[in-house]
Amino acid sequence: MKLSASILLAILCGCNNANLGDAFLAHRDRGNAIAAIRQASATTSMGPLYYKSDPDPLPYPPFDDTTTTDHNDDDDASTTSSTSTATPPRQRPRRSFLHQLDRFLTILQNTSSHLKKHTFLSGNFAPVSEEHVQVPVKVVEGELPAGLDGAFCRNGPNPIVSQQKKRYHWFDGHAMLHTLMIKDGKATYTNQFIPCPRYQIEQELGEEYFPTIGEYKGLVGLLKLTFHAQLVKQKIDDLKQVAPPNTNVLMYNNKFYCLHEANLPMECRMFPDGRLKFFGYETFGGVLDYPVSAHPVKDGEDELIFHSYSVDEQLIEEHGTMKIGKYNSKQQAVSTYLVPTPSKEHVSFAHSIITTDRYIIVWDCSVHFHTDALFYGGSFFKNTKHSLKFGVVPKDA
């Protein structure tokens, strides 16, 4: 299978809820992020980003919900067998009471009709169904510079349609990374579901298990909210490691991170063919006790400025609704970690930050997270009359 450069550009720009008309380098709020992973020279490795050994098989065979072709685990992960053989049906794990309750409440939300009509599940916004490994990309005009060597990555939400039962919001969906690998004047394309614990658990179950933003609507959504933390902890104990890392990617301090607003940074290692292997969650030596947003800012060669907000009641009680920090890779230490907003009255959708030579600028906008809105059939997000405010924090605070 060969993809032209123009088709590949359409894939990278157009799938996973992005418009084809958007410029490839344009930053979308939902996280059409790009990481330029550069090699120091043609004779050196890319450090910890690359595994030098032969890649292990993917944690699960490449997913394809459009065909019935069986995958052969003994062959390369990118190949499939040409014949279909009878296999015993998968035995589903026993469901807990909370899991059964959650499934029942999902039925009450009339999700079938909701999913069929959802704008961001159809047309150009439709999810991608197949994974590919190192597909040759045809250069249709000109040539790639011989010295260009590295990867061009794009991350975004990509739900598995055949497993969808819950209500959907366009922030929901497993993370899928699209990677254009360039080396020796040639290009290949790989796309893969990012193998985070959430994805692997739901693949084992064969169904959606973890909460989605879309299902928090109306009284049924409010009821789900009362036990979802307990449901999640039956599978993943740390709530800062649950959300799909589907919003952005970051290359920092020789590490490759996949990011989400509600998570700790998730580190992956990349094989030379573009496939990923889950490595773990970053805590900066055990210091991070709060999520890190999907849009940290590299400040110079060594420092990373980050922030986040949280709707977790326990985190809010202990730390507040927002927290900012600064990490220095040379010192291997967090030099700044503080709460810039003393009020705990509301949680603002403070998606990003701004930096100057001397200051970190955070904002408190009018889009808030409000569970009260669920009583009236509304969504988790609520526009308020709250005036936009900016906080200016000295970098050495």
Plain-language structure description:
There is one protein chain. A hairpin with a 6-residue loop joins strand 8 and strand 9. The protein is built from 6 helices and 19 strands. The strands form 5 sheets. The chain has a 6-stranded mixed sheet, with helices on one face. A 4-stranded antiparallel sheet has the order 7-8-9-10, with no helix packed on it. Mean pLDDT is 77; it is low at 1-86. By secondary structure, it is α+β, with helices and mostly antiparallel strands.
List the topology elements:
Elements: E1 3-4, H1 5-14, E2 33-38, H2 97-108, H3 111-116, E3 132-138, E4 150-157, E5 175-183, E6 186-193, H4 197-205, H5 218-233, E7 248-252, E8 255-259, E9 266-270, E10 276-281, E11 297-299, E12 303-309, H6 313-319, E13 322-328, E14 333-338, E15 354-355, E16 359-364, E17 367-369, E18 381-383, E19 389-394
Parallel strand pairs: 1-3
Antiparallel strand pairs: 2-4, 3-6, 4-5, 5-6, 7-8, 8-9, 9-10, 11-12, 12-13, 13-14, 15-16, 16-19, 17-18
